[in-house]
Write a structure and sequence with these properties.
- The protein is α+β, with helices and mostly antiparallel strands and 134 residues long.
- The protein has one domain.
- The chain is built from 4 helices and 7 strands.
- Strands 1-2-7-4-5 form a 5-stranded antiparallel β-sheet. Strands 3-6 form a two-stranded antiparallel ribbon.
- A hairpin with a 4-residue loop joins strand 4 and strand 5.
- Helix 2 runs antiparallel to helix 3.
- The chain is globular and about 35 Å long.
Length: 134
Amino acid sequence: MIQKFKKFFETKYRFASHSEIPDEVFQNIKDICTDFADIDIIADVFKCEYHRNVISGRDAQILKAISIELKDASSRFFTLKEILPVIETIESHISEWNLNIDIELISENEFFTLSEFKQEFMEEEFYTLGILIF
């Protein structure tokens, strides 16, 4: 019984140490990202390392991550409101894996938590945007 619990605990909470993201999660995220095509947005999904600076003035944490780079397929701008339903689906899926989302303004190389980004940029228009899952 203890061994079974230990295996469950290690599976459920392994991301606390920021180990490799399982292929199952990666494939599910790729599948969810096909929904961006319905709103004419191209999503390039790949695994990467995310150098996250959590506390100003400290060295960045190097985390295993999934990167989703969004670009409008019709050379027009899109808003966060348009893509939010897909992002919320991703957020719902990754919550069971104890993962988080940051948003990157690719053109400015600035990063925000999802909640910060929603508060500050809900009405803004974007041509490209990055989503990092870690």
